[in-house]
Amino acid sequence: MKHALMIFFALLFAIGAYSQNTKGFSVPKAAENNVSGKTYALIVGVSKYKNPAIPQLQYADKDAMAFYEYLKACGVDTFNIHLLLNEQATDGDFWADLIDIIDKVQKGDKVFFYFSGHGDVESKVITQDAYLLPYDAPKVAYASGAIDIHALKGYLATLSAKGVQLI
C-alpha cells in the first residue's frame, strides 16, 4: 500500500508541476508532442490479488486506467499500449508484454512504464530483494512468481541502451 501511495503522489506531483502556469489540466495535442519515434507503454494496475493473504487495494487499477486514458488523449496509438489490470496482470503476462515491447522498439522511440500495486521485499533472505507484486504473486517466496526489481532493471536498461527514451 505504501508503494502504491508513493507512485500515486509522484504522478500527482508530476501533473501538478506540468500544470503550474495554467488553470486546470489540459492534454497536449499529438502534433505538439514533437516525438520523432513511436510511443509504447506497459501499464499495470493491481487492486485485486488472487492470494487472499495479500491485502486488496482500492485505487491501483483505477490509477492505471487513468494513465492509459491520458496516453490515449495525448495521441498514443492504443495498439502500442499494453494495459494489464487485476486478473490480467499475471507474472507471465507482464514479462510477455515487456518482451513484446523490447522486440518492437527502435532507437528514437519512447516507452512509458507504469506500475500501481503492492511492492515488497523478500525478508527470508539476507539480500532482501525487492519485488513488484502481480495479480498471481505468492504471499512468500516471491522469486517463484513476483516481478524481481533487479531483473526488471536489466530489461529497462536494455531499452535505454537501444536509444529508447524510458519514462
Give an overview of the whole structure.
This protein is α/β, with parallel strands linked by helices and 167 residues long. It is built from 4 helices and 7 strands. It has helices at 2-18, 60-73, 91-104, 149-161, and strands spanning 39-45, 81-85, 110-116, 119-121, 130-132, 147-148, 165-166. The strands form 2 sheets. The protein has a 4-stranded parallel beta sheet with strand order 2-1-3-7, sandwiched between helices. A 3-stranded antiparallel beta sheet has the order 4-5-6. The longest helix has 17 residues, at 2-18. The chain is globular, with a radius of gyration of 16 Å. Mean pLDDT is 83; it is low at 8-35.
Q: Report the helical percentage.
A: 25-40%
Strand order of the largest sheet: 2-1-3-7
Termini separation: 22 Å
In quaternary terms, these chains amount to: single chain
Largest sheet: 4 strands, parallel
Mass-distribution shape? globular
Structural class given helices, strands, pairing? alpha/beta
Spell the H/E element sequence: HEHEHEEEEHE
User: What is the averaged pLDDT score?
Assistant: 83
Unreliable spans: 8-35
Counting DSSP H or I runs of 4 or more residues, the number of helices is 4
What is the count of β-strands?
7
Strand content: 15-25%
Specify Rg, calculated over alpha carbons: 16 Å
